[in-house]
Structure formats: C-alpha cells, structure tokens
Amino acid sequence: MQKRSYGKHFVIVAVIVLVTAIITVVGLSRVRWMAAPASAQARSVDSLLGIELVAIGFLFALVMVFMLYSLVAFRQRKGEEEDGDHFEGNTKLEITWTVIPLITVLVLAVLGARGLTEATAARADEMTVEVTAFSWGFKFAYPEQGIEASPIMYLPVDQHILLDMNSVDTDVIHDFWVPEFRVKQDLVPGVPTKLRITPNKIGKYTVLCDELCGTGHTNMQAPIEVVSASDFDAWVAAQQPSTDPAEMASLGAELAASQGCAACHNITGDPGGIGPTWKGLFGHEVELSDGSTVTADDAYIAESIANPTAKIVAGYQPIMPASYGQVLTEQQISYLVAYIKSLQ
Amino acid sequence: MRFFKTGLVKGILVGLLWWLIGFMLVEAIRVVMGLPPQWNTSLPAGPAVPQDTLKWIVSGGLAAYEPAMVVAAIFFVIGFMLGAGTMSDWLKWTRGVDTPMQHGPKEGQPSWFRYLSVDYSHKIIGVQYGVTAVILLMFAGTLALIFRVELAKPELQLTLFNDNLNWFNTLVSAHGMIMIGSILLGVGAMSNYLVPLMIGANDMAFPRLNAFAYWINVPGALLLVTAIFIGGWNTGWTGYPPLSAQAPIGVQYFFIGVFFLGLSSILGSLNIVVTTLTMRARGMTMFRMPIFVWAAFSTALIQLTATQLIGLSFLMVAMQRILGLGFFNPGFPDITALAPAQLWEGGGNPILFQHLFWFYSHPAVYIFILPGLGIISELLPVFSRKPLFGYKWIALSSLSIALVGFLVWAHHMFVSGMNTYLRVPFMLSTLLVAVPTGVKFFSWLGTLWGGRIELKTPMLFALGAISVFLIGGLTGPPLGTVTTDLQLHDTYYVVGHFHATMFGGFVFPFFAALYYWYPKAIGRQYNERLGVLHFALMTPAFWVMSLGQMLAGTRGMRRRVADYDPAWGIDGVQLAVTIAAFIIALSVAIMVINMIVSARRAPKAAANPWRSRGLEWQVPSPVPELSYATAPIVVGEPYDYGLAGSTYVQFAPPTLAPVHSAGVTGGD
Amino acid sequence: MSAIAESPQIQVRRNRMGMWLFFVSEAFLFGGLLISRFFLWGNTRPELPQVVPLAITGTLLLSSFFMNRAETAIANDDRKTFQRSLLITALLGVIFFLGVMIFEWGWTIEPDGTFLLGNHIHPTSGVYGAVLYGMTGMHALHVVSGVVLILIIWNLGRKGKYSADDHWGVEATAIYWHYIDLIWVFFYPALYLIGTAVPAGH
Ligand code: HEA
Ligand code: HEA
Ligand code: CUA
Ligand SMILES: [Cu+2]
C-alpha cells in the first residue's frame, strides 16, 4: 500500500488550530466568569486564572481540531475495506509532547506558587478580626476595638485584615468564603486557621460557608459591609449595648437571620418545622418531653437558647446545637429574647 | 418457583435473618451486662403511635440502637454471602472435603439462573458486574434528577426539602457514593470480562475468589441504599468528621456499605494482577498484551493498595461513633497547642481523616479513568484501521499515572487547614499528572491521523470520551494551582470538572465498551441507529451540563446547597443543566432498551464484526463456555493493522493444549 | 460440563503470589494506623505498664518459632511434631490475645459479676485511648483469625490431609502467622517504647 503524504494536511490543520484557538481564547475571555473582584488578593487569583484560560483554550483547540479534522479527512469512504497507513509511533514526537507539557506545568507551578505567596502574604499594620463559626452562623469579634460579638462583619476599606478563625470545638468544619474576595479557608474545630484579606471596594458582600456542615449548610452565611474608615469608626462607636425594646428586637431579628435559627424555626406559626415555631411562643404554656409544662417567659427562652437540652419541648428531637451558649453573648441572647417576644 | 432458589434471593433472605440475629445478639448482651437496651437514652425509644413506625425509622429513629444496627449490618453481609453460596466451597475445604472446580450451567437450570446465582465463570461474573453497574447508575442518576429539579430555580421547590434540608444532603451524598460504586462495578465488569479473554486464558487465577468479590458488592450496595431510608446521611460522599461523627445513623450503613465495596475492589484486583502476571498465552510478553490489559493492571495496583485507607478512615469514624475512640474529636479549641497530658482528654484531629480519606480517594479517580482510557486506546486502532500510535508510551503512561497519582492527595485539602507549607509540593505533583495524560491524548491523535476512520457507535463513544475527558482534564490544572483553587474549591466548578472527567474517563468509554463487546458477549448485534441516537443525545447534553456547572461555580454557586442567590445570574444556566440532565437520562434509557430488546430479537452477530485482531474476536460469538479449547500462541504485535501478512495470534495444534485435570483442590 | 484447572504446582505458585499481594494490601492498612499514631501522639506515648506487654510480645515471637517448626515438620512428613507444634502455636496465640484483652485493655470482672473495661486506659481516654485500642484491636482481630486458621489446619492435619509435597494450606497459614507477628514487631515499639511517657492526669 502506498503511503500518503501529509504535508498539505499539516498546513491546513495548523491554520485551523490557530484560528480556532484564537476564537476559543477570545470567547473564553468574554464570558463573565466571576463577580467583580473586591480585594487586593483578587488580582493574583484573577490574573493566574486568565493565563490558565488561555492555556486551556489553546490546548482544547489543538486536540479537538486534530481530532475532528482526522474524522473528516481520514474517514472511511463507502465500500472501502483497506486499512490505514502503517506507522507505529515516533519517539521524537513522543518526547516532544512529553517535554512541552512538562515545561508548561512547571511554569504553571511557579506562577501558582508566586500567586499564592502574594495572596497570603502578611502585611504590616494588620487589623485582627476573630471569626468563630458554628452550626450555622458566624460570629465576629474585634479585639482591638473591644467589640465582643457582632453578627455582621464591618470592614474599613483598604485596610489589611487578618482573620483569626476557629470553629467551636464541639462543632463541625465550616468555611469562610466571599466570592468577591477570591480567597477561602476552612474553619476546623480544634485547629485555628488564618486568612488575610484587604477589601478595596466599598459595598455589601456575603460570607458563605463553603464546607458541607449539615442541615443548615445551605443557609449558612453572614453579611459583610466594607465601609470607609470614618464610617467604620462610627460603627465601632455605635456598638454600645442597646436597651430600647424595639431596637433590641430588630437587632435580635438580624441575629436570628445570621445565626441560622431559621433553618429550624419559623415565624409563620406553621407547626411542621424541625424546631417549634416562634410565633406566639412568648407567654404561652410549653409542654415538655418529660410531661411537665412551663411558661415561656424571658428566663425560659434565654435558657432554651443557651442550654437547649435543659428542657426539651415535647414532640421534638434534642438536636438544637448546644454551641449557642458559647458563641452568643448574654447581650445578644437578650436581643433574641426581645425579638421572639415581639412575635405575637 | 425457581426464582426463589437463585443465589440472589437466598442471599437476601438468609441475610435478613442474620440481620435480625445480629440485632438481637447485641441487645441480649446489653441486657446481660445490665445495660439498658437503648444505647442513646436521650433519643426516643420508639414512636409514640405504632402507625408512625415507618416515619420514625425514616427520620433516623433507630439511632437509639446504633451498636445493634451496626452489628446487624455486618451480620447481614455475612448471612448474605453464606446464603448466596459464595463460601460453600471454602467451608467444605475447612472440613477437608474436596470440591472440583465446576464450569458450565448447572444441570436442569435455565441459563438465566446462572446470572442470578453464584457462578465461577469469569464471563458470567463480568456480565453480573456490568448489569449491576448499570442498575446502580440508573438509581443514582434518578437521585440526581430529583435534586436537579430542586436546583432548576432559586428558592426551595420540593416539599421534601422544605420540611427538612437533610433530605437534600442525603440525596447528594447517595448520588455521589452510589455513582462511585457503579463505577467500581463497571471497572470490575470490564476487567473481569476482558482480561482473561484478551490474554488467552480460560478463566481468572482464582475463580471462587472472583465470584466472592462480585457478590460482596450486592449486600454492600443494598446497605448503601438502605442508608437513605433509615435517616440518611448529610455528609457528602466524603464523610468528613466531625460532621459524620454527628450525622444521622444512615452514615453507619454508608460506611459499612462502602467498606464491603472496598473489600471487593481489593480481592478483585488481586485476582487481576495474578491473572495478568501468570496466565498470559504463550508468546504474549508484557509489551504484546492488548493495551487494555495494561490499563486494568495499573488500575488493579491502585485498588489493591489504596483501598485499605478509605476502609480504615471510615472504620475509625464508625469506632468513634459507637466506642468513643476520639480520633477526630478535638475536645479543645486549639489542639496545636495542647500539653501532652491533655491528650488523655482529647486531641483528636479532623484533618487526619482527610489525609487518610484522600490517600485513597484521589488515586481512586485514576481507578475510574484508567480502564476507560484503556478502552479508548483499544478501540481507536480498530476503527481507524491503524496501529496504536506509541504503544509503549501509552502502556507506561498508565503505570506512571497510577504511581504519580499516589503523591497528590492533598490537593483536595488546599484550604482545609493542613500545614500550609504542604501546599506547594502537592501543587507540583498534581500538575505533573497532566504530562502522562497528555501523552495519551497526543498518541490518540497520532492513531487517528492517516487512518480509515469508521464511525460506528463504539467509535463515536470513544471519540466523545476524548472530547469530554479533555474538558475535564484541562479544568484540573486551575484546581491544582493553589492560588486559583482558593477561589474554586468546593464550588460547582469542581462539580463540572469531575463530572467531565468521570463521564469522559468512565461513562463514555464504558458505554463504548458495552456496545463494542455486546456482540461478543451476547452473540447478537445491537441496533446501530439507536446507538447513534444515544450518542447524539448524550454528548451535547453532557457538554451543556458540565460547562453550565462550571459557569455557575465560578459565579458563586457552592456545592451541596439546595438554594442559591438569584443575584448571581445563574438561573438560566441552572435550568439548562437540569434539562440536560433529563436528556442524558433519556439517552441512557434508550441504551438500556436497545440492549434488552436486541438480546432477544436482533440478528445473530458474526464472530468478528469489527475486523479486530484481538484474541477474543478469533473465537465464536458468544464466547463458548471454554473460551480457548486450543491454546492461542501469540506470534506478532497486537495492533499491526495495515501491515500485510502480519498475524497476532495462532491457535496451537491440539497436542499443545494445556493440561485439563479435573478435580484439583488447593487454590483460591 | 467442563473442568478448567491447571496442574497443582502452577496453582500453588499463583496462590503464593496472591497471598503476597494480600500482604502488600494489608500493609497499607497497618501503615495507615501507624501513621495515625504518629500524627496524633507525636513524640509522646501514654504511660502504661511495661512488663506484661513485653511478655506477650515474647509469647507471640515464640509462637512464630513453633509455627515454623510445624511447617518444617510437615515438609519432612513428621506428623506428630506437626500436630503438636500447631497446637502450641495456637495456644501461644490465645495467650497473646488474652494478654491484650486482660492486661492492655484491662477487662476485669467486678465482684458483682459485671465487666469493667479499661483499668489502665479507657477507649475514650482522648487520643491515647483511641489509638491504643484502635491499633491493638485491629491487630487482635488478625490474631484471632490466625488462630482459627491454625485450628482448621490442625483438624485437617488430623484427618491426614497434608503430606510432605502437598501442604499449601499449612504454608499459607504459616506465612499469615509470621506476617501478623511482623506487624506486631512494628506496633509494639510504636505503642510502648517510642516517645516520652505521659502519665494519666487522674
Ligand atoms: C475521573 C476522575 C478524575 C480525574 C481523571 C481527575 C483529574 C484531575 N483532577 Fe480532579 N477531581 C475529581 C475527579 C477527577 N479528577 C473529583 C471526583 C473531584 C472532587 C472530589 C470531591 O471533593 O468530591 C476532583 C477534584 C479535584 C481537585 C480538588 C478541587 C477542590 O476541591 O478544591 C483538584 C485540585 O487540584 C483536581 C485536580 C485534577 C487534576 C490536575 C487532574 C489531572 O489528572 C488532569 C490531567 C489531564 C489533562 C491536563 C488533560 C490532558 C492533557 C493535555 C492535553 C496535555 C497538556 C496539558 C497541560 C500542559 C496542562 N481535581
Ligand atoms: C459516575 C459518576 C457520576 C455520574 C454519572 C453523575 C451523573 C450526574 N450528576 Fe453527579 N456527582 C457525582 C458523580 C456522578 N454524577 C459525585 C461523586 C458527586 C459528588 C457528591 C458529593 O458532593 O458528595 C456528584 C454531585 C453532583 C452534583 C452536585 C450536587 C451538590 O453539590 O449539591 C450535581 C448537580 O448538578 C450532579 C448532577 C448530576 C447529573 C444531573 C447527572 C446525570 O448525568 C444523571 C443522568 C441520569 C442517569 C444516568 C440515570 C438514568 C435514568 C434512567 C434511565 C431512568 C430510568 C430509571 C429507573 C427506571 C429507576 N451531581
Ligand atoms: Cu457551615 Cu457549611
Ligand atoms: Cu484528586
């Protein structure tokens, strides 16, 4: 059988590969992949991802065009019974396509290591925020500002932040991720972790828990507000304990949202939830699993939150997380009580 | 009824009996030791109203009896294996009774009976593996369809999830793990059916062990499915503690089920290694083996060793749950700063689990793909009528993927809180896997180049596999470079990545193999037009699904959540993914129907419809009970298409046939 | 019906290879346990009585010697020594097992007839308890299965199933037993010798 010559084929394929690669790469770079970045760390991540997209686009075009071209140019024609050309391999080619990808991945590794260093580097004058995760919410503390617990994370813009992160030691693994900040870190019970961010765009964001943590995982999130330095100072100053019932109730509502209570409790009065409804709870007689009853007053509700297994409501499993006693301050529990009180 | 005499039914019945015995035994021991029958007395002992029993069980009420449940599950597996008859020969040996190796249908039983009972022929076992794999695939796929409906729109749709989000997590976990079980069985199907045929052996080295390794999957899979209905488990297929140490009781059945699937992997792969090393036909050197055998061999090496670690890691959590061994229970807010004396009170480390788990589960992903890539390499030469380009490079790349695959596990843990200095070395090793994988891709292109390509269904699936696996593979390096993984970890980008790798590396090639060897196994030809239709529906739908998942992921869609923020603008993408999922399901249904109907109605297949040079194609279809009555002798290269006058195999004159001595004991 | 089988010698060669592959596989299991020990205990270990563990370690090593004697005996068709050595091996194995159960795990029977677990260390004693019970438990499970195998071949030997040139069953059990022994040679120092001893707080 006579061997065909492939010179012409190679030229055509090379041209198509080039064109397709350009189209793919341009196409890929046009897609809006991610939400707009909002931290200094985002730059290293985004630029490396950009490089990788180019590499992906090119390699994809290379392999696909070769394959599809072969299907067209070397297809079996009707009635053809012959075999193809007999060649078993080419060591030089094999070495080439071992070495070139090898170099490519080594370059990627170097870029990756560099990007990592940039994205995690410690900076002078960092402000520390302590993040505690629990099932299913976050608590933020500002040791330098003397704020013990906040359900919302306020951050001054362009300030280097060091997050000291921990999960309650009897709890499960959670995760801290703000898509716009581009960095992420698990919070592991018993193993403190750190994360560094420098928010550089004023706005509202959301911390998402990105590690499966059970029933409430879907709803485990907390608000973040990046504000100007002066707004931040104002917020710090406003963190005095409140005594006005209406304000307490609204702070309590915010807490209930950020602490994941809604995963199990509703405020609509529906009886079917995992935990009892809060609507009309205050002041009513509650039947307990040991057969006794108790009136839902301030003390009972506060105890139910801080130490849920002390009194189990009849007909419910004792599955309410015990960690709230550790993560909520007394002040915050009083806000929650005020909120539940307000749901008549 | 004959059906009730099959090994399957007997196994289930005896297994249930043993389950009950196991449960009673633990309760009896508790009573004797003066303990209350309930293990966890803070949980209700039973439902208030008897009519609610089912509801109570489904919501995980049996957790009050966890040790009894665990022992009962193990008893169930033992009882099943005894009842099915997988161990009867071995039990006879322990009493000194010889049991000759019998092949062929039992007298007086119809042929379908063999497939539902213990049988030692590797061809039967291969089919058993394959059918079980497809059943599990359909089951797990159906679970995916349910939760995809939920995800098609933001907010919660299904009342099932509205009542209790645990159901969502349970479905995702069960989908993931049962799919992986299905892959392991599919891999078993391919290697059990093909390896002995391809190397010219009449069976595996240890046929009884082979049957045992298949059958232990059945109770294992039954436990996995049961786990969904006794409370489920909300941990994902990865089962990370401390969550899995606190999860509903279903997690124990998940652990035990996976444990026995793993045992099957270990025993099955041991068999493959010995078979490959000792039973090749005369003249078949390692580098004259069909390329699939290389892939199966490399796979078996991973399965044999790494699998122990997933068993161990799950066992450790199970022990933490029922015996209080605190491997993963920190007990202190900062165990990195504990004084040694405090280790008496706590000090467990959740990250240890992740190391043990991924030491198996990363190499496992190469278990999923290597046989599939082997199938691609096997089919391309046949359908392009050309030698496999760079045979040795492809063979050795399988081995090197297997070996390097052992060194990369921590790339799943870049943000887990493990020591940060480990990130860079693991990034490097991870990226290195791209090199041998690339060698395969480019060699495939070399194989196609200049061929006479014939686009039959198996070839279409092989080519589809290349395109899909390419996407999956190329999306790996952005995960492997730590910097970008900080953003992408545990998002739907990862979901898109692994569906593409698993479809490209396993599902597509597995379907290709099913179509390709169908005539050989069944003796009839499937319907080509339905085959092409299956391909034409599945491939574009898959692309939409996988690319859609990636896009959703980079926009902010987390894994394992039932709801998402409409502000990210991914509603359209999510809906498209759901629709694509249903199209994939439809296409799979078409294949299943095609195969069932063709097995009865289709025209008889020729011995070698693909004009392949492979050994197994030189014997009639379906393969006779004794595959090679005359011993094959390998005299040439396996893929010398297009070389006039070359032959791969000759059949020896009858005098050279191997010794057939009946009634040999020992062995196994 | 057709029977497919090769000559016994070939099958024994395969069996031997299968056996060794099984050991390679198990090595990963035990290796995983050892790694967990170093991960969780680091350079420390719980303070535990030393004499009994040393004694039962000696017992296990001794049993390996008798196992070996049994194998040589059957290879020389010396049935009496064979049977006797097997029994001694099994007995030493049982002593080892009881040693683990009674002294290391500390099962005691209280005067009122109930069982009490853990007079030195309890399974729930932090990671010390977890790793100690985990490792010795996994090993003890293997010892028990080894003893059962030995008793099976002892019984088969009694029935005259083995001869000088057909005793694969004996050989397999023997390597299995040596293997279990070898594992203990790694476990024992990891649990009792390496690292600074930390006394229990209570
Ligand atoms: C069949 C399964 C399979 C396969 C083959 C792969 C292959 C690869 N995977 Fe994937 N992976 C999974 C299944 C698989 N993966 C699963 C199931 C998960 C999620 C687990 C969970 O959390 O539930 C996962 C998750 C996962 C992660 C963790 C993500 C996270 O959770 O943060 C990472 C990170 O490094 C990763 C990387 C890779 C890489 C680099 C490859 C490489 O092997 C790919 C190599 C192939 C190519 C690169 C393409 C072909 C090559 C060329 C054309 C040559 C030229 C190429 C270059 C120069 C780049 N994978
Ligand atoms: C081989 C492996 C495999 C396969 C084939 C699939 C197939 C599919 N997967 Fe899955 N998937 C995994 C392995 C796999 N998956 C794993 C390991 C996870 C991770 C789990 C975890 O996070 O723990 C996962 C997670 C996962 C998620 C993420 C869930 C989450 O994180 O919240 C999603 C979401 O879209 C998804 C979707 C799908 C879909 C739509 C299909 C479709 O292709 C399915 C198509 C349907 C079928 C193939 C069934 C055919 C049905 C019929 C023919 C009907 C007839 C049926 C009867 C008569 C009963 N999968
Ligand atoms: Cu916390 Cu997910
Ligand atoms: Cu991996």
Describe this structure in words.
The complex is a heterotrimer of chains A (344), B (668) and C (202). Chain A has 344 residues and is an alpha+beta fold. In chain A, 39% of the residues lie in helices and 18% in strands. Chain A folds into three domains: 8-70 and 94-120; 127-238, Sandwich (Immunoglobulin-like); 245-342, Cytochrome c-like domain (Cytochrome Bc1 Complex, Chain D, domain 2). In chain A, helix 1 packs antiparallel against helix 2, helix 2 runs antiparallel to helix 3 (91-120) and helix 6 crosses helix 8. A two-stranded antiparallel sheet of chain B has the order 1-2. In chain B, helix 6 runs antiparallel to helix 8. The relative contact order of chain B is 0.09. Chains in contact: A-B, B-C. At the A-B interface, helix 2, helix 3 and strand 7 of A face helix 8, helix 14, helix 15, helix 16 and helix 17 of B. Copper (II) ion binds at residues 362, 365, 411-412 of chain B. One heme-A sits between chains B (238, 365, 368-369, 411-412, 430, 433-434, 437-438, 441, 473-474, 476-477, 479-480, 485, 489-490, 494, 497-498, 501-502, 505) and A (59, 63, 101, 104-105).
Bound molecules: heme-A, dinuclear copper ion, copper (II) ion
CATH topology of one domain in chain C: Four Helix Bundle (Hemerythrin (Met), subunit A)
> Would you state the CATH class of one domain in chain C?
Mainly Alpha
Helix content, binned percent of chain B? 55-70%
Number of domains of chain B: 2
- For this structure, the CATH topology of the largest domain in chain B is Cytochrome C Oxidase, Chain A
Structural classification of chain C: mainly alpha
- Name of the CATH architecture of the largest domain in chain B: Up-down Bundle
DSSP strand count of chain B: 2
C-alpha termini separation of chain B:
33 Å
> Widest sheet of chain B: strand order?
1-2
Topology:
The complex is a heterotrimer of chains A (344), B (668) and C (202).
Chain A: H1 7-30, H2 42-73, H3 91-120, E1 127-134, E2 137-142, E3 147-150, E4 153-156, E5 161-167, E6 174-177, E7 184-187, E8 193-197, E9 203-208, E10 221-227, H4 229-237, H5 245-258, E11 285-287, E12 293-295, H6 298-306, H7 324-327, H8 330-342
Parallel strand pairs in A: 1-5, 4-10
Antiparallel strand pairs in A: 1-2, 2-3, 5-8, 6-7, 9-10, 11-12
Helix pairs in contact in A: 1-2, 2-3, 5-8, 6-8
Chain B: H1 7-32, H2 53-58, H3 66-84, H4 88-94, H5 111-115, H6 122-151, H7 159-163, H8 166-198, H9 207-215, H10 217-229, H11 243-246, H12 250-278, H13 291-323, H14 350-384, H15 391-404, H16 423-432, H17 434-448, H18 457-474, H19 476-480, H20 482-488, H21 492-522, H22 528-555, H23 571-601, E1 632-634, E2 649-651
Antiparallel strand pairs in B: 1-2
Helix pairs in contact in B: 1-3, 3-12, 6-8, 6-9, 6-23, 8-10, 8-12, 8-14, 8-21, 9-12, 10-12, 12-13, 13-14, 13-15, 14-15, 14-17, 14-18, 14-21, 15-17, 18-21, 18-22, 21-22, 22-23
Chain C: H1 8-41, E1 44-46, H2 51-75, H3 79-104, E2 108-109, E3 115-116, H4 126-158, H5 168-193, E4 196-198
Parallel strand pairs in C: 1-4
Antiparallel strand pairs in C: 2-3
Helix pairs in contact in C: 1-4, 1-5, 2-3, 2-5, 3-4, 4-5
The structure holds heme-A (2 copies), dinuclear copper ion and copper (II) ion.
